[in-house]
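Researcher: Good morning. I'm working through a list of sequences from a screen, and I'd like to move beyond sequence-only analysis. For each chain I'm collecting a predicted structure so we can compare shapes side by side. This is the next one on the list. No need for commentary yet; just the structure.
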Amino acid sequence: MLNKKTVDDINVKGQRVLVRCDFNVPLADGVITDDTRLVAALPTIKKLINDGGKVILCSHLGKPKGEPKPELSLAPVAVALEKLLGQPVKFAADATVVGDNAKAAVAAMKDGDVVLLENTRYRAEETKNGEAFSKELASLADVFVDDAFGTAHRAHCSNVGVTQFVKTSVVGYLMEKEINFLGNAVDNPKRPFVAILGGSKVSSKISVINNLLDKVDTLIIGGGMAYTFMKALGEEVGQSLLEEDYLDYAKEMMEKAKKNNVKLLIPVDTVVAKEFSNDAPFHTVGRGQIAADEQGLDIGEETRKLYADALKDAKTVVWNGPMGVFEMPNFAKGTIAVAKAMAEIDAVTIIGGGDSAAAVNQLGFGDKMTHISTGGGASLEFLEGKELPGVAAANDK
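Model: Good morning. Structure tokens for this chain:
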């Protein structure tokens, strides 16, 4: 469980509170196309407003690489937040983030007011955790609240550096929820505990696989990384995604699973095509039957049944990474089957951010899951068993 101070441990009446949110939202022509992250931030913001705090919000958006890029300004976020909160949100438009506009806006605040700062990554020091920028951010506030799980695995000025220059640093409701769900799922799961890992590369999930093999009852492998496991078993994978350098690693993991009595499942059939395209003619082949000029793009029907069966009795399920090329409708069926199986069971179901979160939401299964993580990279590092700098920086209870 979380042993960090949260917003419930403090009352910020009359105090200036800097809140690091995750407003890294998708924009098209200056319009926010998905406000999930804004909505997720509301409980913490409202709590601080209700306390009578002076609420100063900050976030990054995209990768401006330390320069003010108008198309990555947080101005549209201020407009959207006003609607969601039903009260004015003053936008401090400073290319330097903490400039004259920000200082004046904060100086003029009354209890319960909200100010939004410009994109923290307009400053090159942000991602380097530079002391000067951390101090500037801290100079605006008496209290710091970190509610940005999506950046918790990075030590930046606006989530880690700033904590060295304010007396009180706590985590917000969203961070608390993420840590409790992901942390408990991995360290204290209701069993059987099943983890499903997909996505394209074994290399990006090495430590995750290694850590989970010490904790789960069943590990299900899908997506592009499955072909490295097949090849390690001496099976033909044709033109499928393959990481030659990781064949020995895949063998080791299969050995470890055996030793730990963990069921490790890899696909028994594969949907293949000659080209990486939704329009390519496709068919399904059995284990080890992929032709030299074909590539696997999704798990086959037998595998979908096998994986759904493996989930039936599960009490905790963590899923990270799609089962196939889910952005192409013809190769999304495996990912849909897993989402559907998870939606139908009586278990704690956790989606570990990134592509799997997008898939579940797009397919309309979002409200059937216990928890959908807002951080892709952060949730992966959590599943690796790493301590996240953004969490470590908050005050202990």
